[in-house]
Amino acid sequence: MHNFKIVTVFVITLLIAISGRSQEYKATAKLDSSSILIGDYLNVQLHITAPKNTSLIIQPLSSALLDSLHLELIGYSAIDTAYGDANVNYRQVITITSFDSGSYIFPPILIFDSNINLLATTEPLSFRVNTIAVDTTVAIRDIKQIAKAPLTFRELLPVILMALAITIAVVAIVVLYLKYGNRKKRKKPAVVPKVPKERAHVVALQALEKLRLKKLWENGLVKLYYSELTDILRSYIESRYEVDAREMVTTEIMEAIADKSIDLNNLKELEQLLATADLVKFAKWSPLPNDNDLYFKSARHFIENTAEIVADSDKKPKKA
Q1: Which of 106, 123, 285, 320 has its CA 20 to 30 A from that of 237?
Q2: Is there a single domain that holds both residue 16 and residue 114?
Q3: Looking at residue 152, what is its pLDDT?
Q4: Residue 221 within any structural domain of the chain
Q5: Diameter of the chain by CA atoms?
Q6: Predicted pLDDT of residue 18
Q7: b/e per residue, 274-307, with b = 16+ CB within 10 A?
Q8: What's the Cα-to-Cα distance from 114 to each of 53, 119, 150, rounded to whole Å?
Q9: What is the pLDDT of residues 167-187, one digit of tens each?
Q10: Phi-psi region of 314 (alpha: psi -120 to 50; beta: other; left: phi over 0)
Q11: DSSP assigned state of 237
């Protein structure tokens, strides 16, 4: 009851703060059930309405807040987007559970713009977690020991056949090696022409195009999309600047390339992209579809703007 009063006061304060924007932004949340059994899943249906061409941030539920409310987060669904004449509707399902019986409050979800201004908030939702009834009149029985059954020929037959097949394969490999191995040694090794190594930015841009064609975030694979996008950038930075970027965290990468004569705007775009990817991969952050496309363009701009400049003398062969 005490937690409910605190949450109620908090919500009233937030509603006063965003009253000026209530006509443009709206956020509601609804439970799919008012009670569950211990350990069952409970879905929270989140619905947000906002004007077109706006960028929103849905604040994720922190572990500290969930722990204080004795709730556990199962996960977030992908954000479903529907466009109207003037507004955009966003829908998402948040799945939670609890392993303690009693009455609980699901906290409000806060909606911010890109400048961290509060736009809307949902109301707190109450529900109950019930225990499973136990029949105390039935006596408790000991756990039965594992019964041992003798192996039959039918069970041993696959093992015997596998061992026989492996033996035949090993003998055949030895015979072929003894028969043809010396011939191969006498042959002159084939001369393999050296293939010029592709430059780092060419490899990275090709990898970006392959990633775009996969349409990962469009099919709900947001976490895999950001993982592959940052892998491409880390490989590019490692090849371009000889920095072990694939083994570094975001802050270490930014420190390592701070003195590489990179434009400040490019550095800021890279840092924002890597930080957002960390939130998606490790904090279950759900960016908006516009953000996914924006960060893809940021990755491409960074690679194009930092590509190694090839001198004319390197492009054309020298005359004898």
Answers
A1: 285
A2: yes
A3: 81
A4: yes
A5: 101
A6: 47
A7: bebbeebeeeebbbbeebbebbbebbbebbeebb
A8: 12, 10, 68
A9: 999 998 988 888 776 565 555
A10: alpha
A11: H
Can you tell me the distance from the alpha carbon of 98 to that of 251, in angstroms, rounded to the nearest whole number? 36
Question: Terminal CA-to-CA distance of the chain, rounded, Å?
Answer: 90
Q: pLDDT digit string (tens) for 238-272?
A: 988 888 988 899 889 988 988 888 888 888 888 88
49 — pLDDT class (breaks 50, 70, 90): very high
d(CA 291, CA 156): 58
Which residue, 72, 111, 117, is CA-closest to 92?
111
Unique residue bearing structure tokens 């041992």: 148
CA distance 296 to 305: 14
Q: Is pLDDT at 188 greater than 60 in this prediction?
A: no
The percent of the chain in helix, strand and coil, each rounded to the nearest 5, is: 45, 20, 35
Domain's final residue, options 78, 99, 130? 130
**pLDDT score recorded for residue 186:** 56
Q: What's the number of domains the chain is made of?
A: 2
Are 12 and 92 within one domain? yes
Domain holding 82, by residue range, is 2-130
pTM of the model: 0.40
Residue with tokens 């055949």: 172
pLDDT, one tens digit per residue, over 200-248 is 899 999 999 999 999 988 898 988 999 998 999 999 999 888 889 888 9
Give the Cα-Cα-Cα angle 134, 140, 142 (nearest 5 degrees).
Answer: 135
H/E stretch holding 166 reads helix 153-186
Amino acid in the structure at residue 94 = I
